[in-house]
Structure to design on (260 residues):
């Protein structure tokens, strides 16, 4: 169990499935923890084991310093999971900031170890090579007041309603959001330098009331197939039970079709 102790810091697995054929590794949004995505394990069949990435500075690791940059997150997750990633097929799901993290990690694994997810599922995120991504990175989050960030997160729906009246929790959410955003700003991706980085299929999900995402830019990042699904709701459409049901069924189908 030593391996699980080392992983425990960074990786949460609520429903262990040692005999699963594939692992789905989930990456949270800015300011987010593992609460929602780690519960997805219950929604999948026995053939898929769900792991959720827990970044430092939140939940049971509140006292730990936040990650400095995207490279250190990628290195830590690689160190914690490399053995597992080599052992059996894996897929990534990331929402918003999580989609950029999953992309950065997939890039690193491909370049350094020749490993690639069987499928990359990105949600509410721009292709890292797109103009829209540069616009997100340029948002003046560091200069914004706490209450401006809270107001924005309320509009997006990123804070559970029961926490909105708790000052201490809101303070922590804002701090975590700022730190995650700072990490996002350290992520540089120069597509011109490397051609097409991936060969796996990519599926892009987003909410119908969220901003538009550049599907074309995602298509240019893989020689595999790219598909796009819009589900009812805003930026946090994925927290709706009916959408979760669609996502888990669709993700399962894609993984099974990958011939895992």
């Amino acid at each position: 169990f030593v391996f699980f102790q080392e992983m425990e810091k960074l990786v949460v697995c609520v429903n262990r499935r040692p005999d699963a054929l594939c692992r789905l590794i989930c990456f949270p949004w800015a300011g987010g923890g593992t609460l929602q995505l780690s519960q997805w394990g219950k929604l999948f069949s026995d053939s898929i084991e769900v792991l959720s990435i827990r970044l430092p500075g939140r939940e049971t690791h509140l006292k730990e310093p936040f990650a400095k940059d995207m490279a250190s997150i990628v290195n830590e997750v690689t160190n914690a999971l490399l053995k597992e990633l080599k052992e059996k097929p894996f897929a990534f799901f990331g929402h918003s900031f999580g989609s950029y993290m999953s992309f950065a990690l997939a890039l690193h694994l491909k370049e350094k170890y020749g490993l690639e997810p069987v499928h990359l599922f990105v949600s509410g995120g721009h292709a890292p090579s797109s103009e829209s991504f540069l616009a997100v990175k340029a948002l003046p989050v560091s200069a914004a007041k706490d209450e401006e960030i809270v107001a924005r997160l309320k509009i997006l729906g990123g804070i559970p309603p029961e926490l909105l009246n708790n000052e201490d929790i809101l303070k922590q959410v804002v701090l975590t959001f700022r730190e995650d955003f700072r990490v996002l700003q350290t992520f540089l991706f120069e597509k011109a330098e490397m051609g097409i980085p991936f060969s796996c299929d990519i599926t892009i999900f987003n909410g119908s009331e969220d901003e538009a995402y550049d599907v074309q830019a995602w298509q240019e990042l893989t020689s595999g197939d790219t598909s796009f699904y819009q589900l009812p709701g805003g930026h946090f459409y994925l927290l709706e039970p009916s959408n979760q049901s669609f996502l888990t069924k669709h993700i399962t189908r894609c993984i099974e079709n990958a011939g895992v």
About this structure: The longest helix spans residues 167-185.
